[in-house]
Amino acid sequence: MIIAQISDTHIALDSPDADQRIRDFELTIADINRLDPAPDVIVHTGDIVHNGRQDEYAHSLATLAKARMPVYVLAGNKDDRMRLREAFSGYGYLAPGSDFIDYAIDEFPVRLVALDTLSSRSNKGDFCLERIGRLTDLINAETAKPIAVFTHHPPFEVTVGPDRLHFETPEIMSRLRQALQCERIAGVFSGHVHRAAAGQVGRIPATVMPCIATRLRKGEYPAAMQKRPVYQIHRFDPLWGFATETRIVADRVAT
Ligand SMILES: [Fe+2]
Question: Which residues hold their Cβ within 5 A of ligand 1, which is an ion?
Answer without folding.
Answer: 47, 76-77, 192
